[in-house]
Amino acid sequence: MDTEYYREKEAETENQAKVEAKAQVEAKMPWERYAPVFTNLALMAKTMASKPDTMRLPRISAPHVNDYMSYTPIDSDYIANQQRQMAAATNNALIDQSGGNPAIARSMLLSANRNNQTAIADSLFKASEYNRGLKERAIQFNANINAYNAGLDWDAIQRNAQMKAAEVQYETQANALRQQAINDYLAGIGTQLGQIGMEKFEAKRINQVGYDIYGNPINRT
């Protein structure tokens, strides 16, 4: 009789110890079990609050060539005046050579003036041709410089466009990785909550058949 009493008392004490241990475990279990969920929530919030990663590459500018050819024409009026002065000096010398004979002086002056007019006209024509050629060369030379500078500008535009495209590609990939991280954290939270829900469901189902979550029979008396 005493032996049976002590056995029952021992079993009761053992069951009480299991109940207390179970209560302690279950008191800690919710927070410990939800720790991964809180961790993923914190990481997701940190990622969402962070600024998307960006990249800025240096731009280039075209080094223009500015050595343009200036157009400085010959002063045809200056040349004509110089030749007129020379013609006047020549006429004075011819008059002195005529010995005071009006006929001889007139004949010599007519010939000299004709030659002088022809020389002036020829000089003016040559000056005009030189100026025209010089202007054409200056225009062509400067046009070549402009074309060269335009090529430099186009090259700079293309290089800057490539840098912009590289920036956009980098930022697109960075944003995609950031969004993927957020999605992964969110999926992890969903998975963990699902596992917790499944564990609670299984614990309840096991409890209904007379056992606790540790596989121990439940004393329902």
Write the layout of secondary structure elements.
Layout: H1 2-49, H2 76-97, H3 102-208
3D structure, described in words:
With 221 residues, the chain is an all-alpha fold. The chain is 80% helix and 0% strand. It contains three helices and no strands. The two termini are 22 Å apart. The mean pLDDT is 78.
Question: What is the gist of this entry?
Answer:
This protein has helices at residues 2-49, 76-97, 102-208. By secondary structure, it is mainly alpha-helical. The longest helix has 107 residues, at 102-208.
For the CA atoms, what is the radius of gyration?
Answer: 55 Å
The global form is rod-shaped
What is the overall pLDDT average? Answer: 78
| Straight-line distance between termini | 22 Å
Approximately what portion of the residues adopt beta-strand conformation? under 5%
Point out poorly predicted stretches.
none
The biggest beta sheet, please? none
Question: Helicity range of the residues?
Answer: over 70%
* Beta strands, count: 0
H/E topology pattern: HHH
* Structural class determined from secondary elements: mainly alpha
What is the number of helices?
3
